[in-house]
Amino acid sequence: xxxxxxxxxxxxxxxxxxxxxxxxxxxxxxxxxxxxxxxxxxxxxxxxxxxxxxxxxxxxxxxxxxxxxxxxxxxxxxxxxxxxxxxxxxxxxxxxxxxxxxxxxxxxxxxxxxxxxxxxxxxxxxxxxxxxxxxxxxxxxxxxxxxxxxxxxxxxxxxxxxxxxxxxxxxxxxxxxxx
Length: 179
What we know:
mainly alpha
């Protein structure tokens, strides 16, 4: 039932169903506990980040190399705007950069830690497979921060052509045009 709720994005009901069993989920001695992962994902989406990180830390003691736990930890830290720790955690994952979502997340972390060149490199890789508007906008932001306004403008335009129109992008485009 939780999978159906997760596919619908029904976070409140996932938490309602699993919260009474949180002690059992935590005591279950398995390295691959699907219900626990769904519970942690729901906590992240519900902004219960401290609780989520506490649970992850307790599980890390049992399973220090669990990739799924590391990804969830990185996600929670990112949501807390703790970008350096989120980046460190994600880089410890052995299978990082398997897909575009991983690369996008890592690119966002590099951007927030002001490593724009690394972010640009990863974003260009993702664009080769799928030109998502948010990645185009982030690429524009990277070039903007590097004061390469003509390149920033190219990617901001592409992002708006894909339907991403945000006040920040329009402001950055205007600033880029003045340079």
